[in-house]
UniProtKB/TrEMBL annotation:
Entry superkingdom: Bacteria
Protein name, as recorded: Aspartate aminotransferase family protein
Family under the similarity heading: Belongs to the class-III pyridoxal-phosphate-dependent aminotransferase family.
Alphabetical keyword list: Aminotransferase, Pyridoxal phosphate, Transferase
Coiled-coil stretches: none
Organism of origin: Mesorhizobium abyssinicae
Any one GO molecular-function label of the UniProt entry: transaminase activity
Source species taxonomy: Bacteria, Pseudomonadati, Pseudomonadota, Alphaproteobacteria, Hyphomicrobiales
Family matches, as Pfam families: Aminotran_3
Cofactor: pyridoxal 5'-phosphate
Amino acid sequence: MSNRLKVTPNDLSAFWMPFTANRQFKQAPRMFVSAKDMHYTTSDGRKVLDGTAGLWCVNAGHCRPKITEAIQHQAAELDYAPAFQMGHPIVFELANRLVDIAPKGMDHVFFTNSGSESVDTALKMAIAYHRARGEGSRTRLIGRERGYHGVNFGGISVGGIVNNRKMFGTLLGGVDHMPHTHLPEKNAFSKGVPEHGAELANELERIVALHDASTIAAVIVEPVAGSTGVILPPKGYLQKLREICTKHGILLIFDEVITGFGRLGTPFAADYFGVTPDIMTTAKGVSNGVIPMGAVFVTKEIHDAFMTGPDHMIEFFHGYTYSGNPIACAAALGTLDTYKEEGLLTRGEELAPYWEDALHSLKGEPNVIDVRNIGLIGAIELAPIAGQPTKRAFSAFVKAFEHGLLIRTTGDIIALSPPLIITKGQINELIDHLRDVLRSID
Ligand code: PXG
Ligand code: PLP
């Protein structure tokens, strides 16, 4: 083992960890040193079942050979090519492969390096699209309470998670928010999409009436909200949003960073719900989380609106040094090959009923106040400890990790999103572990 891997507590201070309780972590570090398929191995040699596909990204499971080999080969062949005014073959191949599996009408792809960058790219595209068509007054962006759209300024402005916003000043101007769709008093313990709440989409009409459609560029929502603790769209809600946007000439952006690439048992949530947005933001599963990558899908209409002016002029003044990085593209192609060979983009559909029954068997366990599910996503909401919100779920997280299971918590909600290769036996194992954990914490 190289010296680099021998970490002692005094070595931990330099790294300021993202979205982490740094001081707690550094007192009792939790480290993974390797991973294979459904499991991690910890620094003390224990196996941990991955109940969350990393951070909702390792959809094909860990250290898959096709992906590893593609990266190794590409690193030795062409490590980098300038992203601006130059190309390399596999970035075009990847874009074509992605368009092939995307919902009909999503014909063009713009590459980024993360979900946050995909979101800010999409917001800029929406505003610039209207301007290119001579409707420069359409600059407002509409998000939703409890929405998560990454951590860049555009994303936190349209996002609706208070802790992600309140420390960071005035954010973007000209943003409004629709209400979230979490209605526990009506929808608790729903299996799949809840019955009640489609009328909340009409709040968009109220916002349009307030600002006038001529000032609104786009509405952005997660088809299924993940980070905020798994909030599902009520039956008919997304269809209504689509109708209202179309009626008023407002672009609809689906943020599919979590739902993209098979999470719901269909390639994209747009397929699951039968609702096609104008722009779709993705990341995570596009490259199995192995190399950072994001992809923004747009319709031909949006793309073509930019393709005006002299041929030698740049059409869209936007892009990243690493947009379409060759090694990221290779990882993504290896990922798409793996998804295809193993049918992973639709495997969730087959497993969803089993997953649903297993999750809902946790109803009645201590402090469980709701269970929610869709595709291969699950959430178990716990009653908070009085005066100490988040503490109960955090205890569950630490306990689960000690017992060999990785879960994710936000507030007092446990979120589950296993790799799409999970077996029924592993679903049982995951739920049994979780049941023990719920029975053993305060
Ligand atoms: N949009 C959505 C809908 C997301 O879920 C992002 C944008 C930002 O992606 P990047 O790649 O910039 O992180 C996300 C990311 C969690 C969790 O545990 C969720 C995300 C990231 C990390 C943790 O819920 N979502
Ligand atoms: N900051 C500086 C000083 C830069 O030169 C660049 C890119 O050239 C950036 C930020 C943006 O970096 P990226 O393209 O990786 O987003």
